[in-house]
UniProtKB/TrEMBL annotation, chain A:
Membrane topology: Single-pass type II membrane protein
Binding site for heme: H123, Y127
Taxonomic lineage from the root: Bacteria, Pseudomonadati, Pseudomonadota, Betaproteobacteria, Rhodocyclales
Database matches in InterPro entries: CcmE (IPR004329), CcmE-like_sf (IPR036127), NA-bd_OB-fold (IPR012340)
Subcellular location: Cell inner membrane; Cell membrane
Protein name: Cytochrome c-type biogenesis protein CcmE
This protein's record includes keyword Heme: yes
Originating species: Thauera propionica
Domain of life: Bacteria
Topology, Cytoplasmic side: 1-7
Keywords linked to the UniProt accession: Cell membrane, Cytochrome c-type biogenesis, Heme, Iron, Membrane, Metal-binding, Signal-anchor, Transmembrane, Transmembrane helix
Automatic annotation (TrEMBL), chain B:
One Pfam family recorded for the sequence: CcmF_C
Protein name, as recorded: C-type cytochrome biogenesis protein CcmF
One Gene Ontology biological process: cytochrome complex assembly
TM region positions: 6-26, 47-64, 96-114, 121-142, 177-197, 209-229, 249-265, 277-305, 311-331, 352-374, 394-413, 425-443, 449-470, 491-514, 616-636
Entry GO MF terms: heme binding; heme transmembrane transporter activity
Function: Required for the biogenesis of c-type cytochromes. Possible subunit of a heme lyase.
Bilayer topology term: Multi-pass membrane protein
Alphabetically ordered keywords of this record: Cell inner membrane, Cell membrane, Cytochrome c-type biogenesis, Membrane, Transmembrane, Transmembrane helix
Key word Calcium present: no
Cytochrome c-type biogenesis protein CcmF C-terminal domain location: 315-638
InterPro entries noted in UniProt: CcmF_C, Cyt_c_assembly, Cyt_c_biogenesis, Cyt_c_biogenesis_CcmF
Organism: Thauera propionica
Domain of life: Bacteria
Length: 148, 657
């Protein structure tokens, strides 16, 4: 083989490797995006059913209840405008509290309950998950527009 | 008074940083030794003043001086002394001061260990480091002054985030920062070489130990951080693909590529432009990591501040660094020349392949981490990218990397015969596949992931053994001692680090496939079974600490009626912030961890308890330790010192002439 064609093969092989790797990354990326919806959007039916997404807001006061097994917890997430019932089995984060911000990830059931597989709460006293803050802000904006 | 002293020292450090950035650079371009010589004392003086500043801040924390805003928000008079000291970096301002101090420490190390380098080159390196320091010190002074006063002072501080009150937090940030910031040295060497237009084997050799040491720190920092998350977050995960972890992982991947690329540049003169580009990118990603972590754009335990001005400042710094260095690169790179040629089948090719794959892997982490931030910043909706994406990407990208990693060392530089090389490793390769299948079958968990992971690990171990055997039998006739002594430290380093990857894969694979967990309601005397272990709940007592109240459960762990351990997980309530915390209790073993964390009390005497069985999880950190140790061996190779002595003579002659 001539040096020139060797070089060509090397470059060609490198480019092919790169293209394959990039294609892999992009397709994995597209399949695994998790979208975020506010409770209002979920209530309006804008959220997908059967697909994982995230909802953020405040945990409604007085909504946390434990089922008889003691492990399944139900609570409600609100952006102050709409309320979404959530059910979750597992350990809750230490800072998960009523009246505080939280983000849940999971799927929407046919009965309108959100079955969470993951619950995220804030990390310290004055830190609110940006998604939760965003949901409440959106809802209060919407409320402001309605009242005008 | 003390805080003002600290503030003043920081201003003086900035002044010296400006001197260090400008004077030696001017000296190097005009060839004036007197000006070049300013670099070293300026850098050392700068370190002195940053150290004074840092000590002053620590003093405010130790003395519980709550007229200092930072101490008031992050410390408490009842906090144990240890956490008062580490609380200094458990916040935005203090951790940036630590960043600046690590940079200064690295710079001082350069001033000490560069006697053998040409004076003009050292002057340029110190100049570049000076500019980076100017950027960070002005960032501190302009947007994040750690010495801001709180007037009137408060009587009691708000305490350090309880998650950070942990021994792991004592060493994680300094290690990580030494790693992050260490890449600034490789960066400065690359920029200095671009400025002189001299990117040769000598430059690569000078950069190598610095890059390797920075990489060792980064590896250790990431491993400690992962260990901390494992026992402190209370649910037994060790890696979460959280943006902050990704921020440290991206420079690690590129740093790994850079180390290997430097090896090729030194030995064969090839990959020069690529090496320079990697050095620039690795440091840029370190800066980007600082931006992600410190700008408050993400939800994380690390996101202290949400002041947009700070984010903008780091972003501007980032744009300047990347912009200027890429411009310089575009201007100089075409003149660099190609270097040694190599054929399709050669060690160079295998290293190039891995370099490309590691870079793509790093880019894929960048995409997954930054894309949601971009969308959000542009107001185009909020999305998140979770572990499934990273897993889907990493397994296919890293599989060829690991295969090539063990195949490459069997190939000769420049040119080799593919058939002969494949024939050499074929038995080990086939055996690995069989071991992978057999072991997965033996542990009764035959999934493609388990088989793949175990086969890769077996491949690494077998090929490592074959490599070592080959190396020992190479010198026929010599005694065993002579044979072993003839192996260089850097070869042992490579061997250990690669073996570490194998050990790491064993841990990741087995804990991923065989772990088990159970959430149960428990009360006094009640039992639960998991993975052959019996857990007996022995009730809960009060166990209050200096700055928290705690409930401590006692749980006896037995296996076939044999006592294994008594675990005491706690639920703590940190008083200053009213923040609850789960403190897990772990029985660590070489082949498995038994991990228990205490949940909530749901009625009197009944608690939710989470039980975890984590097989081979320590192997993850054992693997990281071997990798780090490999780095230490590689950096300690005698060759660097021997050649440094030769360079020193050359440099001295230049000075005389």
């Amino acid at each position: 083989m001539k040096a020139r064609s060797k070089r060509l093969m090397l470059v060609g092989g490198g480019v092919a490797l790169l293209v394959a790797a990039v294609a892999l990354v992009l397709s994995a990326f597209q399949q695994n995006l998790v979208f975020f919806h506010t409770p209002s959007e979920v209530a309006e039916g804008k959220a997908p059913t059967g697909k994982t997404f995230r909802v953020g807001g405040m945990v409604e006061e007085g909504s946390i209840k434990r089922e008889a097994d003691g492990l399944t917890v139900s609570f409600a997430i609100t952006d102050t405008a709409k309320v979404i019932p959530v059910s979750y089995r597992g350990t809750l984060p230490d800072l998960f509290k009523e009246g505080k911000g939280a983000v849940v990830q999971g799927k929407l059931e046919a009965d309108g309950t959100f079955r969470a597989t993951e619950v995220l709460a804030k990390h310290d006293e004055n830190y609110m998950p940006p998604e939760a803050a965003h949901a409440v802000e959106q809802a209060s904006k919407a409320a402001a527009t309605v009242s005008q | 008074m003390i805080p003002e002293l600290g503030h003043f020292a920081l201003v003086l450090a900035l002044v010296l940083a400006v001197v260090q950035a400008v004077v030696p650079m001017v000296g190097a371009s005009r060839n004036r030794f007197a000006l070049m010589a300013v670099g070293r004392p300026a850098a050392q003086g700068q370190f002195f003043f940053i150290l004074v500043s840092y000590v002053c801040l620590t003093w405010a924390f130790i003395q519980s001086d709550f007229s200092v805003q930072l101490a008031a928000s992050n410390s408490h008079s009842a906090t144990p002394l240890m956490y008062k000291i580490t609380g200094v970096w458990g916040n935005h301002e203090g951790s940036l001061l630590l960043w600046a101090m690590s940079l200064s420490l690295w710079t001082v190390a350069v001033t000490v260990f560069s006697r053998h380098l040409p004076e003009a080159f050292v002057a340029r390196v110190l100049g570049v480091l000076g500019w980076v320091s100017v950027g960070f010190l002005s960032f501190l002074l302009v947007t994040s002054n750690p010495f801001d006063r709180l007037l009137p002072a408060v009587g009691e501080g708000r305490d350090l985030n309880p998650l950070l009150q942990d021994p792991g937090m004592i060493i994680h940030p300094p290690l990580l920062y030494m790693g992050y910031v260490g890449f600034s040295v490789a960066f400065a060497f690359a920029i200095a070489a671009l400025l002189t237009g001299r990117l040769d084997a000598a430059w690569a050799r000078w950069s190598r130990p610095w890059t390797t040491v920075a990489w060792v720190f980064l590896t250790a920092g990431i491993a400690v951080g992962s260990g901390w998350a494992y026992y402190e977050l209370g649910w037994g995960g060790w890696w979460f693909w959280d943006p902050v972890e990704n921020a440290s992982f991206m420079p690690w991947l590129l740093g790994t590529a850079l180390m290997h690329s430097l090896a090729v540049t030194e030995k064969r003169g090839a990959f020069r432009s690529w090496t320079v580009l990697l050095a620039i990118s690795a440091f840029s990603l370190s800066l980007l990591g600082t931006f992600i972590v410190r700008s408050g754009v993400i939800t994380s335990v690390h996101a202290f501040a949400t002041d947009p001005k700070r984010g903008l400042f780091i972003l501007a710094l980032l744009v300047i660094v990347i912009g200027v260095s890429l411009l310089l690169y575009a201007w100089r790179a075409p003149k660099l020349g190609g270097g040694g040629s190599f054929s399709l089948v050669s060690r160079e090719t295998s290293l190039l392949g891995n370099n490309v794959l590691l870079s793509v892997a790093s880019a894929s982490v960048l995409l997954g981490t930054m894309y949601p931030l971009f969308l959000d910043a542009l107001g185009m909706g909020k999305i998140s990218v979770g572990p499934p994406y990273f897993e889907a990407v990493f397994i296919p990208l890293m599989t060829p990397v690991v295969v090539l990693m063990m195949f490459g060392p069997f190939l000769r530089w420049k040119d080799d015969d593919l058939t002969a090389a494949v024939r050499k490793v074929a038995p080990a390769f086939v055996a690995s596949v069989l071991i992978g299948l057999g072991t997965a079958y033996a542990v009764d968990h035959v999934t493609w992931r388990t088989v793949l992971g175990l086969a890769l690990a077996a491949w690494v171990v077998l090929a490592s053994l074959q490599l070592l055997a080959g190396r020992i039998t190479e010198r026929a006739g010599a005694s065993m001692g002579t044979r072993l002594r003839s192996i260089t430290a850097s070869w042992w380093g490579m061997w250990l680090a690669h073996l570490g990857v194998g050990v790491f894969i064993i841990g990741v694979t087995l804990v991923g496939s065989l772990d088990a967990s159970l959430d149960v309601k428990m009360q006094d005397g009640q039992r639960a079974e998991l993975a052959g272990y019996t857990f007996t709940f022995r009730g809960v007592q009060d166990a209050d600490g200096p700055n928290y109240d705690a409930a401590r459960a006692t749980i006896d762990v037995t296996r076939d009626d044999r006592a294994i351990a008594t675990l005491t997980p706690e639920k703590r309530m940190y008083l200053a912030q009213g923040m609850p915390m789960t403190e897990a209790s772990i029985d660590i073993g070489p082949f498995r961890d038994v991990y228990v964390s205490l949940g909530e009390q749901i009625e009197d005497g009944t608690w939710i308890v989470s039980l975890y069985y984590k097989p081979f999880i320590s192997w993850i950190w054992l693997g990281c330790t071997l990798m780090g140790l490999g780095g230490v061996f590689a950096a300690a190779d005698r060759r660097y010192r021997r050649l440094a002595a030769r360079d020193a003579t050359v440099a001295a002659n230049q000075r005389v002439a």
